[in-house]
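Translate sequence into structure tokens.
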Amino acid sequence: MIYRNLFLAILFSLGCLSLPVRAENSDTKLSDEQITAVKKALSTATFANSPPTTTSATYVADPRIPQLPSFSYTAGTPLPKAVPGAMASMMGASKYSPQSATTDAGGDPNAFANTKLTALPFFGKLPFASVVAANPQLAKLKIGDVFPSWSAADPNKSVGDFANSPLGKTPIPADVIASTPTSNLPGVTDTPYGDYPAIGKPPIDPSNPGETVYIADMPGISKLSFDNFIKIGAIPPGLTLLKFDLLHSGQRELSVANGDKVAAGSNKEPNAPCKNCDAVELLSPIAADSNLNPYNGTISPIGLQLKGGYGLLGDLLTAAGVREDSGFEVPYIGFGDCGSKWSARSPNVKAGTVQQTLSFRYCFTLPILGFQATPYFLPLPLPLPANEQQANLLLPMMVRPVVKAPLPSIPSPPSIASASASVSPSISPIIPSAVGIDKVALFGSATKNSYSPTLNVYSDGESSAKLPAIVRVASPLVNRHEKFG
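Result follows.
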């Protein structure tokens, strides 16, 4: 037993357990089961079928971030009515037009052939001058030819001149929208959303941006699948692979102060405590039965809504009430390079299952102000199992372990006279700051019965090398099913 613990301590101190692992009987270096499941989720998820908001928020536009308009929503609001069009534009919707978004979402290629302007709800929210700025092909047309029912407008004026008049600061009246065919405005259904001020650009007049345009006002966008916006990149070094171990029903406060390994949280509320909440307990696939591995027993509470985000944008949205789940960052899946966050939802304590979820944010960099990011507030349920009995592997994540207490000294083995190197009387293992994953792909689920304790080391696409298997035996250091509730 002493030799085994000594062996583990040396491996941890040398970083030898910072290695990728794989499921047994895999034909390739790493299983692609999880990456396939994530891709499937992205291909079917849309703003329209995503879970509604879980909190309320009211944001007032700040001139220091002109890209983002005021918006508000209450708990239970469908995402298309909660997410501003400007935010969706920065996520990748700016390249779409009403027609292309509708077609790419599986809609009718001739959806706007015989419609009124009511088919373009955002037209009734933007100042008329913003509509014309995005559609310069309209400028030389006569108002009377385009909007014959607009009684307040001089029919002999050009659209461009009228847009520059005081009435150009107001939206097109509702009765005019309802009576004007889209065919009177050539090209507008093919104009990208990114060309519109207050959607894809800052408003022409920040003091008069018009009403907030939401995704629900932008035809086609709410039904586009997330794989049009969200990308899966290469997994960076320094991430941790964990597997689902136990689901506990909350009976007391979980906190680091109480000795719990609550490693989940947010950048603004790290290691966030949770009172009377359910939580998942996670294990490392490597040395899963030993508390020499600081990742064993990692706890992620369920149901917390935390402050998050970065920079001025994060601070403003946090003040507005936007929140994110407690969990761990997944930096290689997201809008552009914005990443996402893993969390557990919908716990079923009796069945021992949870719903794995990725939540997304959007981000950008501003001159002087630097990196800006919203909280991770857009949830995507994943079709990945998370079951106590199966001990499913999770996605590689950014996990900073919590060391509950100083580890005991490991006594040295009996000295051997012929040994050329002396052994210190005691060895205090050095726990690395992260058990990382080097250049790997996503990992497939493995059950407790099929997981191989053989470590597989992979370099840049070359042949793999194997370390000797770690044999799981009883140990006085084992404490993997410690109860915390």
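Note: The chain has a mean pLDDT of 81.
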